[in-house]
Amino acid sequence: MVAALVGDPARSNMLTALMTGRALTATELAHQAGITPQTASSHLAKLEAGGLIAQEKQGRHRYYRLTDPDVAGVLEGLAGLAARAGHMRMRTGPKDPALRRARVCYDHLAGDLGVQMLDSMKQQRLIRQRKQDIELTAEGERFLAKTLQISAEALAHPRRPVCKACLDWSERRHHLAGTLGAAMMTRFTELKWAARDAAAGSRVVNFTRNGEKRFAALFGNANGGG
Length: 226
Known about the structure:
Elements: H1 2-7, H2 9-18, E1 24-25, H3 26-33, H4 37-49, E2 53-58, E3 61-66, H5 69-85, H6 96-101, E4 103-105, E5 108-110, H7 112-123, E6 127-130, E7 133-136, H8 138-147, E8 164-167, E9 174-177, H9 178-190, E10 194-196, E11 205-207, H10 209-219
Antiparallel strand pairs: 1-3, 2-3, 4-5, 6-7, 8-9, 10-11
Helix pairs in contact: 2-3, 3-4
């Protein structure tokens, strides 16, 4: 069911646009997919019925977003499968290297730097990972509180794990999702180490020069490969 919904190029493009974590209107999603608003409405109805997106009304407008971060994780994994099979539909261009280096996957850091961060956290024993199960260690809790002012208590959520492995489509290894991944991305933005690309529909995350230095100090060389 999910594969059939995602397999359509127009629906795939709309879902990819929603992986920025922002809510978008049907008109905006139609533009992202390169289809008419009428056709977009039909596709959106199918995606909503399939439980992949939800809508909320604000004033005269209806906004659509992914139902939860797990949907983004599934889409990221399917994108990796498509890339390996030679069926990747993502538009390439000047932004492609930047997208692969650092991007947002719904609300957490993905791409080369996202994978690098998770690898570094494992090496520093801030987290323990067994297959896809990740656990924040006591040392990790102290590290987060000291370096990023993120408390373990603030990470608790009734329906979302603190740590989760998300398969990165470009690196084909895992990056960090869950409430911790989201909190770290938020903190990077608050500290002005990184900022989302201003272009509509862009998932690119740009690190400042200072942000790269700070990131590298915590998680290794930010200019290195993943």
